[in-house]
Amino acid sequence: MARFKHYDYKQTKMIPLRFADQIQPGTFEYTLNHVVDNELDLSVFESRYRNDHNGAPAYDPALLLKIVLFAYSREDYLWFTTLKR
Question: What is the pTM of this model?
């Protein structure tokens, strides 16, 4: 089984706020969080990780997918096209 870096939306370490309190019901962010965590089957990503016994823990694919989808929703992905030039 793949190992992922631990993250918790209820954490209060390093940042004096809780992410769970920042994502308000009825917003796009709340819906995105719910869909990725509860509706999508991300097992295809987990099966590709081979860090069961060695190697550093990876970032959870659900967390990375949320970041990418949120960036696309805000059209913040345009920086990537300038890097490809």
Answer: 0.64
